[in-house]
Write a structure and sequence with these properties.
136 residues, mainly alpha, 49% helix
C-alpha cells in the first residue's frame, strides 16, 4: 500500500452522519448570532398597518416606504391635523324653545277687527266725494 493510507485512522464525524452534522452546525450558527435579528423599520409612526403585518411572515424583511409614498402620507397627516385645528371652536346652539300646545296658540292669537272703515253713507245720509266719483 501506498504511504498515508487509511488503515488506522478514525472516521470523521461529519462523514459518519451528515444530517446530524448539518443540524449541529445550524444550531451553532444560531447561538453565535444571538437569536433572531430583526431588520430596522424606518418611519414606524407613518408606516401603514398592512406593511407592518408583513413582519409576521418574514421578520427579517427589510420594510421601507418609497419617497413618494412617504410624502403622500405626511401630506395626508398634515391636512388632517390642519382640519382638526380649524374645527376646535364650538358652535353654540340656541336653547331649545318650549313646545306650544293648542291652548297656548289659541291664547296668543290676536283678535284682528274685520273692517275698520266706517260707512259714512249710512250715518249721515250723504255720499262722500270718493263714493260719488266711483258711482259715476
Amino acid at each position: 500500500m501506498a504511504p498515508g493510507s487509511k488503515i488506522n485512522r478514525p472516521k470523521i464525524e461529519k462523514l459518519k452522519n451528515p444530517r446530524k452534522f448539518k443540524r449541529q452546525m445550524k444550531a451553532q450558527r444560531k447561538r453565535q448570532l444571538g437569536g433572531l435579528r430583526m431588520a430596522e423599520v424606518q418611519d414606524k409612526e407613518i408606516m401603514p398597518v398592512s406593511h407592518l403585518l408583513k413582519r409576521r411572515t418574514s421578520p427579517k424583511a427589510n420594510i421601507t416606504l418609497s419617497g413618494k409614498k412617504k410624502r403622500k402620507i405626511l401630506n395626508q397627516l398634515r391636512r388632517m391635523q390642519k382640519d382638526k385645528e380649524g374645527m376646535d371652536f364650538e358652535i353654540q346652539k340656541p336653547p331649545p324653545q318650549p313646545r306650544q300646545t293648542k291652548l297656548d296658540v289659541e291664547m296668543n292669537t290676536v283678535h284682528i277687527p274685520q273692517d275698520t272703515r266706517q260707512d259714512t253713507t249710512q250715518d249721515t245720509g250723504q255720499d262722500s266725494e270718493q263714493d260719488v266719483d266711483m258711482k259715476e
